[in-house]
Amino acid sequence: MGLLSLQGDFARHAEALLALGAEPVRVSLPEHLRDLDALIVPGGESSTMLRLLDATGLRGGVQRFVRERPVLGTCAGLILLARDVERLPAPTLGVIDIGAERNAYGRQVHSFTHDVDVAPLADTMAGMFIRAPRITRVGRGVEVIARLDGEPVGVRQGLAVAITFHPELTDDRRLHAWFLGDVAGLKLRAGGAVR
Q: Catalytic annotation on 151?
């Protein structure tokens, strides 16, 4: 299970994967993408992450990967996966037909936690919103999978999933488990791991 590890909150995603029995593989060079079943693009600073994709030579490999295999983007990861985002230093990966606005809920001091309705879980979970983006447009073929007070905060298009909040910052592993099992089709084995 790949974890884009250029910048941002990849360590907490690694903890979530380990808790579920999945082996996190840090991806910081093109060769790290080999033999991976799925990829997580974590939160962080989207402008920095886009620049680092180019500086490390990862852009082409990651672009191909997210178009063909399962990917989960959280917070800044949603920005990288979105098709339309303004004021960025480089193009996004554009794999999900949504528009997004960066830092739409305010600065770091405006961070908050709120219950989010998550359709694939048929339940709510705590969503931590930290300088979170807002989904401003949902294109045809994009399924809204999570809502905050009726507003979309999570989407899925094919094998690509993106959410505006940080599930890795809570002890609730259900969203990661859903992504691994239902989206990526991975079977976690007792005593074993998926790569």
A: no
C-alpha distances in angstroms, 178 versus 79, 140, 161?
21, 23, 11
Report the 10 Å Cβ neighbour count for 171: 8
Tell me the pLDDT of the chain averaged across its residues.
Answer: 93
pLDDT given for residue 109 in this prediction: 66
**Catalytic residue from among 13, 32, 168, 176:** 168
- Selected catalytic residue, list 32, 75, 101, 176: 75
CATH, domain range 2-183: 3.40.50.880
Torsion angle of the four alpha carbons 129, 127, 7, 11, in this order, in degrees rounded to the nearest 10: 140
pLDDT < 70: residue spans in the chain: 106, 109, 188-195
Set 13, 32, 101, 166: catalytic member = 166
Taking the domains of the chain in order of start, what are their residue ranges?
Answer: 2-183
Active site residue 176: no
32 noted as active-site residue: no
Q: pLDDT tens across 89-113, in order? A: 999 999 999 999 998 876 776 789 9
pLDDT at 193: 47
